[in-house]
Amino acid sequence: MKKYCETELRYRAIFEQSPYGILLIDGRGIIMDFNETAHRDLGYSREEFTHLHISDIDPFQTPEDIEESIGKVLDKGSAEFEVKHKTKNGEIRDVRVITRVLDLSGHKVFQTIWHDITEQKRAEEILKRHREQLEELVNNRTAELSRVNGQLQQDIAARKSAEHAREEVIHELQEALAKIKTLKGLLPICAWCKKIRETYIREHSNALFTHGICPGCLKKVSPETYEEVFNSATEYKE
């Protein structure tokens, strides 16, 4: 008897001092026993909490839903889940529930432990929002970097094209300069009359030619024509 009393005392000490709510609930959802944390966290006095049903603190499930949930736990023997509880002043709290079925004097009851995880859920939600904002920022930054990189590639391509065009112009100018130097440095001259050959100058410059014959060549080639032309010119002057 003494040993039984000691066991009961230890049980009650753990039961009352637990930082989590501990309850005994019958198969109809009626709260049979509970510790101080269970009623205090929801803002009820012990006397007020004694008269409550599970449906009174779970506003999101109908009595039928609760009855169905109780039946599932009875079949499985235990369960672990999250629910929302309503406090006496109407505040909604997130709660983690662990429950198991016990046989108490031939009756099936639920030994239930629950603890408030509202602050944890809020912290997780804040962290989630921050993570989403960070992901959005990273995505926007990545898109901007991609756009800038694309523009940079276009600028590089345009610069290469301009450099290529510049090299072609330089090459053309160098060729033109080489031709000019050739024209200045070596001129093919007729071995007979000592005149520069027309074809060479036409190929190496933009000069245009009008054709005729110089007096010296005319005199050598056609003395008669020379005499006729220049004698007539002399007579005309006189």
Describe it.
The protein is of the alpha+beta class and 238 residues long. It folds into 3 domains: 2-116, Beta-Lactamase, CATH 3.30.450; 118-185; 198-237, no CATH class. The protein is built from 9 helices and 5 strands; from the N terminus they run H-E-E-H-H-H-H-E-E-E-H-H-H-H. It has a 5-stranded antiparallel beta sheet, with helices on both faces. The longest helix has 68 residues, at 118-185. The protein is rod-shaped and about 160 Å long. The model has no long low-confidence stretch (mean pLDDT 82).
Q: What is this structure's SSE topology?
A:
Layout: H1 2-17, E1 21-26, E2 31-34, H2 36-40, H3 46-50, H4 54-57, H5 63-76, E3 78-86, E4 92-104, E5 107-116, H6 118-185, H7 198-204, H8 215-221, H9 223-237
Antiparallel strand pairs: 1-2, 1-5, 3-4, 4-5
Helix pairs in contact: 8-9
Our count of domains comes out at 3
**Uncertain runs with pLDDT below 50, 5 residues or more?**
none
- How far from one another are the termini? 172 Å
The CATH homologous superfamily name of the largest domain equals PAS domain
- Helices and strands, in order, run as HEEHHHHEEEHHHH
Annotated CATH architecture of the largest domain = 2-Layer Sandwich
Instruction: Supply the helix-strand structural class.
Output: alpha+beta
What is the rounded Rg?
Answer: 56 Å
